[in-house]
């Protein structure tokens, strides 16, 4: 197993960035951001072949589309710390005229953002279009997406899933953040999702389950497995089991921190649990 300490250090720093961003403006979505930190850190620093100098077309690069745009705090932190824009710009999160809108948008021109997202259910459709364009252009790179599990209650997801398998979009890896929570409660209570593996397989996808979705080593293993399944005629789905609020004990175990910011005392405790590793912005 390769040494992944540098990724774990980055995870801790990104957690600090997340809670500091939302605390500064008393708004935003820390829970899902924290749950997906290990995934996005691993994706951008270990898996994807991408260029932080950024151009919108992304020809001959792997592409990522964040469909559950409300977890923008983790997305912005990972992009900044990968070199897409200055880390200091994280201090502008959700402020007037910022490029770091509460939900990512494209018209502010923030490097790394290729779609507006936040209105749930749309990212897979966009990613399928990008993946098909890559095939038409003879570009052999891969397109990645991330979705919340609650987002799967959107009908457009299943239209896209059906289209992707029927058209053999096999250069697409869509990851579902299976944390069992959404803004109003558990997914089981709000609208039960049933057996997601059976559902995606019935829609013609290959499916991988990563049980330890907050463990960078397990994520690397799962992503390698997923990459090996691409270009075999089917789109690939990763069911990534995570904990909402991971890494901050009082934010874990419920949906409570989906969309609220910590107060001063809670921020101090969250930071105490995640000591600075790479320097705060
Ligand atoms: Mg969820």
Automatic annotation (TrEMBL):
Name the family.
Belongs to the transketolase family.
Keyword Transmembrane helix on entry: no
The molecule here is called Transketolase
Keywords attached to this Swiss-Prot or TrEMBL record, sorted alphabetically, are: Thiamine pyrophosphate
* Alphabetical list of InterPro entries matching this protein: THDP-binding, Transketolase_N
Domain Transketolase N-terminal stretches: 9-270
Q: Does the keyword Iron-sulfur apply?
A: no
Xref: Pfam families: Transketolase_N
- Cofactor(s) recorded in Swiss-Prot or TrEMBL: thiamine diphosphate
């Amino acid at each position: 197993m390769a040494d992944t300490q540098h990724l774990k250090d980055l995870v801790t720093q990104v957690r600090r960035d997340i809670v500091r961003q939302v605390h500064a403006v008393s708004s935003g979505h820390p829970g899902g951001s924290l749950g997906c930190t290990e995934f996005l850190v691993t994706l951008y620093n270990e898996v994807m072949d991408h260029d932080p100098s950024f151009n919108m077309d992304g020809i001959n690069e792997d592409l990522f589309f964040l469909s559950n745009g409300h977890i923008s705090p983790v997305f912005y932190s990972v992009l900044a710390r990968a070199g897409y824009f200055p880390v200091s710009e994280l201090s502008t999160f959700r402020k007037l005229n910022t490029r770091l809108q509460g939900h990512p948008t494209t018209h502010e021109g923030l490097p790394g953002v290729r779609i507006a997202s936040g209105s749930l259910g749309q990212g897979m459709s966009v990613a399928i279009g990008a993946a098909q364009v890559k095939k038409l252009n003879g570009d052999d790179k891969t397109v990645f997406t991330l979705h919340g599990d609650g987002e799967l209650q959107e009908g457009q997801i299943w239209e896209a899933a059906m289209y992707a398998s029927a058209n053999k979009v096999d250069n697409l890896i869509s990851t579902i953040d299976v944390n069992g929570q959404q803004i109003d409660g558990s997914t089981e209570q709000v609208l039960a999702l049933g057996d997601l593996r059976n559902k995606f397989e019935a829609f013609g996808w290959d499916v991988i389950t990563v049980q330890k979705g907050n463990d960078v080593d397990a994520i690397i293993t799962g992503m390698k497995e997923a990459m090996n399944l691409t270009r075999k005629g089917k789109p690939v789905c990763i069911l990534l089991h995570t904990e909402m609020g991971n890494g901050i004990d009082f934010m874990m175990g419920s949906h409570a921190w989906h969309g609220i910011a910590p107060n001063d005392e809670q921020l101090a405790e969250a930071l105490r649990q995640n000591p600075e590793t790479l320097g705060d912005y």
